[in-house]
Structure formats: C-alpha cells, structure tokens
C-alpha cells in the first residue's frame, strides 16, 4: 500500500496539516501541443534499393612479377608434372616411389561416408535482382559518416580451402593434416569435409555472387597437398591442382575481384607432420611452383595462417615455430630477390588481446603481457623488431624453445610487408591459480606454459559483451586497444585485420529467414568497423584493411553449427545453393558510406 506522505505535511508540534499546493507554471498557448484527427492512410516506411556490382574485368597496370613464361626458368629442371586418380582397390605394384599405387597408399587409412554429388566445375548463373535487394535500414546506428577510410583501403571477405572446397580425394589431391576430421575412422561423418561447401566445383558461382553484391577483395587459400600430393621437395607436382587455382585467380579478375592468396591455412600435407625440420625445404618447393605461375596477378600473399597458436595442434614443439619462421623467410627472400616480385607478403597471426582483469593489479598486468609474449612475441619479435624470443618464454623451464642465433634473426627480420592478424575479440587475463612463477616451474600445471587464466567475464561479474556460439563476442570497446597494442609494440608499417567475424548463438537451429536476418553479426561488424575508424582518425594507427570471416557458412574444423558465414549454404535439398544474409549487405554498405 502506498504511503500517504505524499499528501500530508507535518506542521509545528507534529500536528498534521494539509499539504500546500505548489504554484503551477502557466503554459503559454504557443507551447501547447495541438492534437487533431484526420483520415488515416498508410505510408511507405521502406524503400527498395539494390546492391551495386563490381566493374569488371579487373586488370593491373603493371604485373606484380614476371609472367610464367619468364619465371619458369627459376624452377628445378627435374620436376615431374603429372596427375593422380585415387583407386582404393589398387594393390601395391612396382610403379615407383611416386606411382599411382604409392598415391593410393597415402589414402589407405582415410575414407568418408559421403562423396561429392558432382565432380565438374559448375557454370555460374546470373544472380537474380530479387536476391540483391537491401534489407530494411537499421535506425540505431551512431553516425560516423564524416570519418572516411583511406582510398586504398583493402576490404573484402575470406575463407580457406579445407573449410569450403570438399572433393578431398579428387583430381590428384594428397591427404592433409586436417583430413582425419570427419573421416569414417573418427566416427564423425557429420563433419565430413569431403563435401564441405563444394566450392572446389562451385568457385565460379561463389566469385560471381561476391562480385554481384560488390565485394572487391577475396582472400582464399591454396591447398598445398593439391599441388604437391606427397608433400615433399622433389616429389611430383599435380597439374590438375595448378590448373584449378590458376582458373580461380583468373575468375576473380574476370569479375573484378582482387585475389589475396594464402599458401597454407593449417592443411599442410600429412607427411609434413612427422618432421618439421624439413618444412623450409618442402614449403619453398611448393611455393615456387605456385608463385611462378600466379604471382604476376596476385598483389598480396600470406605464407602461413595462425601458426602462433599451432603448438599442441599442428606442431608438437615450440621449436617448430622456428621452422615456420625460417620457411616463411625463405619464401619471402625467394619472391623478392629471385622472382623479383613487387607484391606484398606477410604471415597471419591469431590474437584475442589479453586485457588485465584488474588493470590496477600489477600481477594482472604481468599476466596479460606474458600472454601476449607467448602468443605474439615469439614470432613477432624476430619478424618485426629483429629481436630475440621474449625472455618470459625462453626462461620458462622445459619449454623446448631454443634461442635464435644472430644469423637466424638477421634472416627472419623484415620479411613481412605489413602486420596481419585475426582479432575476433579480447579477453581478461590474470595469473594462473598457482601464480605465474610456481606454474612456470611445474610442467604438469594445466595452465603451463603461459600460466595465465583467461575469461570473458569482467571483474564485476558481467560478461564483456554479447556472446556468440563459440568464443567471439560483440565487445567493440576493446578493438582500439587490440590495434594500439600491435601498433605501439611491433611498429608495423600497417595493420590488416585479416579475419574477424561472429557466429550467433544456436544460429543453425533457427529457421532460414531468421538466419538470413543475422542482426547480431551485422552489429558485430558495424561496431568493430566504427572502432577501426576511430583508431585511424583519433589514434593514428595505419589500419590498411579488413577481411570478414567468412563469406560462406563452412566447416569450422569439425562443426557446421558454428556459422560464421555471411551467406548460408543449403545442404539439405541437394542444391548447395547460397543465400545472402543481411550482414553481407550491411558490411558492403559500410564501405560505400565511408569511402574517401
């Protein structure tokens, strides 16, 4: 029951007195709201507008390297060029170390529940105008229209070979380190990468769709085992693989799209896993075959994708990162010095910035910096600064990380033309429960060797942002710190956000129209990009581009439920048709709005 104190006032000696009314300001006639009735009619609250396709074809004024007719002289003269067909029933015959039966033996322990429903390249169909209608305009955006991006800003989308191609055992491809995911032996046929998005045969359709909606850059990876099935230097080169990626690049240019090519996106040949001391020789052998043929038409190259988080998955030892660095440097030096390429080369890092859980607590700051030393400093120090591995890593007992020699540092330093990384989100860091020193001395501690506890929950108990189905979050408040840390710590010439994206919670369980209207993904991109604008204009950070992950819902290393795609893929009706989501329209629109 409400108190009556609002209508009763106390007079002297505690006697109740009627409350005195306050004077009421007189409203002038001019300030009164005027109400009126009329004849109701509906008004149009939406307007139909269409995406603008790219101008095509795309031609570069000057090639980025000599044409293959000239560059072919840089290749070994004793290379065998051939193709393979997988015949699982083939028995071992004396057809040589690299014969057809040897190729069949590569696949002896790998088979799949499903096979691709078609095995030839699909001719693209024009995108109907009805698919190119923009979604309803968002009204809750802050207007930063006055902030413009540099005229040469790189923006587009990304994907990787293993996650979208399918056709793992077709046209001479050899097995990769990822192919056990979804193989029958793993009892995981639901994530069968032998199908994936069938982009190995639908790449023309995919490229045509990106051009129709106006995406100017496409970052994709080449499958190393499609080019070198046996994976080792001196072994045969698969001509069907070379022809395929040559046509992918030509199709990009035909539709007006600039290609960005990654040489290895995790799926290195299965044979490489047994001995990383041979990585530099094998990787350079493969890279030469690719670059001599395509480098005249490719302005940007990435050697390795996210090797800095590969220890314990792709790599068994921290010293394997040294082999990655020397392999990367070997390709860089060959491209620049022998091929005389003028394009730009980098290596791509993973990083979700560690932010001290309590910035006023020095141990939390130490934990955040230690985390960054492990995840970025080990490779970033020699590449960008010409410095030794971080002392925090080298001084961790039993880490099995050998300090670089001066000659190694000299060879590695400067073999990157810009910084590229995948900063999906940030996270909070504090010391491991045992403390950093005790943890570092105890190899059996679950937090070893970083010895840092990370969380997405703030010290006050709140989540840092709207969470996705996996680890990403809508937390734009940390974007500028991500970029600022890289800019001020490693002093790169420029920063490319080479992957960023959001997979809404339980997205795969929603109906198709709800998946299409992917508002959370749009908010993630819009907020992230607005913070990039501020980083450029207010912080003086040279951000040179962004590539959204991913342009298709794909195989996220064993899961089709983690849907990062800006297009859906119909895997249920046999059509494998793609469908734009609103996030792709809004992503494209952002760059139209902020172009210089």
Number of helices: 16
Question: From the 3D coordinates, which CATH architecture would you assign?
Answer: Alpha-Beta Barrel
The CATH class designation is Alpha Beta
Provide the β-strand percentage band: 5-15%
Helix/strand-derived category reads: alpha/beta
Q: How would you sum up the major sheet?
A: 8 strands, parallel, barrel
Structure described in brief:
It comes from Aspergillus ibericus CBS 121593. This protein has 596 residues and is of the alpha/beta class. Helix content is 29%, strand content 13%.
Spell out the key features of this protein:
13% strand; TIM Barrel; disordered N terminus; eight-stranded parallel beta barrel; 596 residues; three-stranded mixed β-sheet; alpha/beta
Structure description:
The protein is an alpha/beta fold. The chain has a single domain, classed as Glycosidases (TIM Barrel, Alpha-Beta Barrel), CATH 3.20.20. It has helices at residues 68-71, 100-106, 161-164, 199-213, 224-227, 239-254, 279-294, 320-338, 362-385, 391-394, 406-412, 436-440, 479-490, 512-516, 519-537, 582-594, and strands at 8-10, 16-18, 81-82, 154-158, 217-221, 237-238, 258-264, 300-305, 344-350, 354-356, 419-422, 427-431, 452-455, 466-467, 473-474, 495-497, 543-549, 567-569, 578-580. Strands 4-5-7-8-9-11-16-17 form an 8-stranded parallel β-barrel, surrounded by 4 helices. It has a 3-stranded mixed beta sheet with strand order 10-12-13. Strands 1-2 form a two-stranded antiparallel ribbon. Helix 4 packs parallel to helix 6 (239-254) and helix 15 packs parallel to helix 16. The radius of gyration is 28 Å and the shape is globular. InterPro entries: GH, Glyco_hydro_1. It comes from Aspergillus ibericus CBS 121593. Keywords: Signal. Residues 1-21 form the signal peptide. GO terms for molecular function: beta-glucosidase activity.
